[in-house]
Amino acid sequence: MFVAVISNGISAQVPRATAIVSGEAWLDSKGNRITAHAGSVLFHEGHFYWYGERRGKTIDEQPGVRAYRSTDLMNWEDLGTVLSKTTTPGDTLEVGCIIERPKVLFNRKTGKFIMWFHFEDKGRGYGPAKYGVAIADAPQGPFTLVRAERPNKGIWPANAQPAEMIASYQRPEWLPESMRIISIDASDKRYKRLIDGFNDGQEARDQTVWQDEDGKAYHFYSSEMNGTMHIAELSEDYLSHTGKYVRALWGQSREAPCVFKRNGRYYLITSGCTGWAPNPAMLHVSDSIWGPWKDIHNPWQGEEAMTRVSFESQGAMIFSLPNYKDAFVFLSDRWRPKQISDSRYVWQILEFKDNHAIINWRDRWDLSVFTPPSASDGK
Ligand code: GAL
Fold first, then answer.
1. What does pTM read for this prediction?
2. β 182-184/160-162 pair status
3. 163: part of which helix (H) or strand (E)?
4. Residue 215: left if φ>0, alpha if ψ -120 to 50, beta else—which one?
5. Residue 97: is it exposed, middle or buried by C-beta count within 10 angstroms (0-12/13-18/19+)?
6. Mean of pLDDT values over 105-119
7. pLDDT at 173 over 60
8. In Å, how far from its chain's centre is CA 176?
9. Residue 12: per-residue pLDDT
């Protein structure tokens, strides 16, 4: 039992949660509302760490990135704000800037915790379209900003090049045979955003970072006015891009990328692009991180009225339980834009049918839905 102090000053017992109940108001171990939206979960040394947008009553009230810690994904201890905005005028993180969709990776080589997020400068709405990266020595932070900027300035995507470059193009080793290289015609309006991005850096809004089994990590971001997804390789320390990147889901206007890998294939669940309003999700699959990505289906199962709004949710991240087989948790948000701090969480598990992920709504579930790793796995 945890002890909570309620508003009239009387201490109350906070009962331990025994299930994940999507759509309900979730409380932390002190009885306060959990505020960690569009977030991510990282497992590190026996604990789950949940990072997300700390949201106030209004959309603008947003003090930074909040973290929580748990051992069972149900009972969460508040670790406070781990990446804070500042009151220093002119500072990049000055209150008024926007930090969204924070994702944290542990870098095994450097022993550091690296957070990537969507960043917008103070007072400029969603115009700047930048990414931010921050670093910490410990999972509970504090995180320090490394940089906020637009990615891949002055670099063409590997699968879209100006005609004169294709003529002399040596295909790098890493580029899969299946990759389609588009010749950019500068007079074609469809390439305007990409060409602008070559000069100013590519637009980066909704985003995630994802770590492959070999330790390489990738940045997925909605670019070109949210019309096309870019997939960019990160440097070994996860603090910057290497310059290898591709365009994917051309012109499909997909957001909220959530990545996972199963049986050697790469999967991506995205949302449509309708702001806070929910829309149908889509599962995409590829044999290579670089594509080509193929649309499969909306993974949500059930009545059309609910599947077309993804059970009133938008994806944040797919978390795979370490050491388990096929144990994936799909973290989503049920936004309430009129009072953003009252937004809810929809966490469901992925099931597999014909090798593709589907999601069946469960009112309540806990980790016992997954088959635990057997002792013979030796893990
Ligand atoms: C959504 C996006 C959210 C937030 C919102 C603002 O499409 O996924 O992260 O940016 O738009 O309207």
1. 0.93
2. parallel
3. helix 163-167
4. left
5. buried
6. 98
7. no
8. 25
9. 57
